[in-house]
Amino acid sequence: MAYLLVIGTRKGLFRATSDDRRHWEVSGPLRLDDDGYADMMGIYAVGIDPHTRRVLAGAESPHFGPSVWRSDDLGRTWSEPEEAPIAFPDDVEESLTRAWQFAFTDEPGVVYAGAEPHSLFRSTDGGDRFELVRALWDHPHRKDWFPGAGGGAVHTVIAGRVDASGTDPRAMTVAMSTGGVYQTRDGGASWAPANAGITTTFLPEKTPEYGQCVHKVAVGPDGAFYAQNHHGVFRSADPAEGWTSIADGLPSDFGFALVAHPGRPGSALNFPVISESCHLPPEHRLRPHRTDDGGRSWHPVDAGLPGEPYYGIVLRDGAATDGAGEPGFYFGTRSGDVYVTVGDSGTWTQVAAHLPDVLCVRAAEV
């Protein structure tokens, strides 16, 4: 088998390939155009289409603005559509800041993009062109969604799931900062908040209907949802019915990234950060934590990681799984280091070191 890891950084896109997930060949920054101006773009979102293996990269240039680049040869070469793939309609007085997330469905060609400002876009041609999902944009709550410290965006898109009852092509869950979790069960025609039990530290009401600053949401193979909040880690079998805290046992309940095991119910990885005012790892150690019992207990998984003081944290899309039968788990830090662990080994192997700030990683068995 071969494995592809695509790494988005603040200064360009990197690509890593491996046959065994222990030894990696890293290249980059990848040239996105013949002039090379795009080499230094910030890459905030990467997606690998499970049907075609097309790779999408959400890029942002301080000179040319945001765009979506695409590769149909596993990241070796790239192209950009002549017209902006993601743009607001003429009757919307907003402009795209950046794409934050790409999510693929069971239907070939259908791709969703979560974006900033708070918005969701849909493509039916594999990501060449996207259209605004108007029902979410026109939601009456939108006037109260405001940017958090990292901007106001739909940063999590989970297609086909709203609870543990099974997949449904008309169902979808999104999470945003600052707004919370919203769900649709009718293909995006209507949306409802699903935040009961998720707390806030910055609003007068501690458990509002909406307005939470959810940092990341992941879903396990049994349909259980996990949420890393702006202080607070939560689990739910059905977000519409509420969430339960599972933060006990973690060194901090603040963080950004969260990854659910793709094949084992109850298992997830968390990457704690000291607090909202101190974005450093607890005890200055690079130490992910894992649960194997749905959040009732957590334990550090740090074999192979630096034992000396470390100061880089993992951002919300800086961690991922390749979804293989024996899954690999990956993360990259703001210090530019990228690691992988495979299956239950519990031991991390370094993929790359000293890259620019890692903003996102995505991996696939190819």
From TrEMBL:
Question: Where does the source fall among the domains of life?
Answer: Bacteria
Q: Which InterPro entries match?
A: WD40/YVTN_repeat-like_dom_sf, Xyloglucanase_GH74
Q: Name one GO biological process term.
A: xyloglucan metabolic process
Q: What is this protein called?
A: Photosystem II stability/assembly factor-like uncharacterized protein
